[in-house]
Design goal:
CATH class of the largest domain: Alpha Beta
Shape: globular
InterPro entries: Lon_proteolytic, Lon_Prtase, PDZ, PDZ_sf, Ribosomal_Su5_D2-typ_SF, Ribsml_uS5_D2-typ_fold_subgr
CATH architecture of the largest domain: 2-Layer Sandwich
Largest sheet: 6 strands, mixed
Radius of gyration: 24 Å
Protein name: PDZ domain-containing protein
Number of domains: 3
Order of helices and strands: HEEEHEHHEEHEEEEEEHEEEHEHHEH
Number of strands: 17
GO molecular function: ATP binding; ATP-dependent peptidase activity; serine-type endopeptidase activity
CATH topology of the largest domain: Ribosomal Protein S5, domain 2
Strand order of the largest sheet: 4-1-3-13-16-17
Number of helices: 10
Distance between the termini: 81 Å
Helix content: 25-40%
Pfam family, one: PDZ_2
Organism: Limosilactobacillus oris PB013-T2-3
Strand content: 25-35%
Length: 349
């Protein structure tokens, strides 16, 4: 009996060790993230323009990258799958906690939607106005004297009592001050206005600054109401595709012509398209969803640019390479602007 008991105990120990190992492999969080192909969703379900439904038989599709914190098991899997990648937590979040990172990504998305509405309505010759609210705080640097007052997500509306209509206006005014000069900042948080005064710190060179990363915060108003609900998606990379979807609805022009059209790229106030991250994953997601056309941001690949590009390839170069391997038959179209994308859709079938 004693020998039998030892044998049973040994097997119980082995089983317990196996369960603990599997639990560790599946659940233990690592300080890195895995990026994989995400979704390619029909934008018809995201955009509502009053009195202007999307009657097209095709679709515009917004593509995403699936991002999840790595576990030992998924880390090994990502190493084995060519189109998955592993990024450090700092590279992905910029050192921000998950709540702050999510807040910034949602603001990027909303800012992208605002620009998309403005560009689409202007292109369709429909009334649209933009009200500049201030500068949105994306990050507060460790050396900033304002770090105990200002938080990520705040909107700075005045400096020393002055309101400007662009971020550049704020930056130029602050840049004329000297390092160590007290600056009074008025900012909004959760609908409430606050004021704080601290000294400016040294930025690059001898230039003075608050010590924050920022972007524009604006409100867009249209005569014909438009609602855009991005759901759980975040970041600025859906700008171009949102613009195309809104433009098709407000203008009544059928740009889709029965095609499934995917793409990615930021959009600015002038309708210019900017590069984004993870385009290789987005190509695969679009192919899986049946897209036959994919718009990719284009920039001229100079030696200096390629030195700093992810993988030393531009968005378009990486998109073409990925499509050739994983998305045969899908047309990758390089674009620098919204107008260029519209021209392509209008002149091709």
């Amino acid at each position: 009996m004693k020998r039998q008991d030892k044998k049973v105990s040994r097997w119980i120990g082995i089983a317990l060790a196996a369960v603990l190992f599997i639990a560790w492999a599946l659940l233990w969080p690592l300080n890195s993230y895995i990026e994989a192909p995400g979704s390619a969703s029909n934008l018809r379900s995201f955009v509502q323009v009053k009195g202007h439904p999307d009657k097209g038989k095709g679709s515009f599709m917004i593509t995403s990258v699936a991002l999840q914190q790595a576990r030992p098991a998924t880390y090994v899997m990502a190493k084995l799958v060519p189109y998955m990648s592993i990024e450090s937590a700092d590279d992905v979040t910029g050192g921000q906690n998950s709540a702050t990172f999510d807040r910034v990504q949602k603001f990027y998305m909303q800012s992208s939607i605002n620009e998309a509405i403005a560009v689409a309505y202007q292109a369709a010759h429909q009334p649209v106005s933009k009200k500049y609210l201030g500068i949105y705080v994306l990050q507060v640097q460790p050396n900033s004297q304002f770090k105990k007052a200002i938080r990520v997500g705040d909107t700075i509306t005045k400096v020393n009592g002055h309101h400007f209509n662009t971020a550049q206006g704020y930056q130029k005014y602050i840049g004329r001050q000297k390092v160590g000069t007290p600056l009074t900042v008025t900012y909004q948080r959760d609908g409430k206005t606050h004021t704080t005064t601290h000294k400016l710190v040294k930025l690059t060179g001898s230039r003075a600054g608050i010590g924050i990363m920022l972007t524009n915060n604006m409100k867009v108003t249209t005569k014909t109401p438009v609602k855009v609900n991005p759901g759980q998606l975040g970041g600025p990379s859906g700008g171009l595709m949102f613009t195309l979807q809104i433009y098709q609805q407000i203008s009544g022009h059928d740009l889709q012509k029965g095609r499934k059209i995917a793409g990615t790229g930021t959009i600015d106030a002038n309708g210019q398209v900017g590069e984004i991250g993870g385009i290789d994953k987005k190509i695969i997601a679009a192919h899986r969803a049946g897209a036959t056309v994919f718009f990719a941001p284009y920039v001229k690949p100079t030696k200096l640019l390629l030195k700093y590009e992810d993988g030393h390839q531009t968005n378009y170069q990486l998109a073409k390479k990925t499509a050739k391997k994983y998305a045969p038959g899908m047309k990758v179209v390089p674009v620098t602007s919204f107008k260029q994308a519209v021209h392509y859709l209008e002149t091709t079938e």
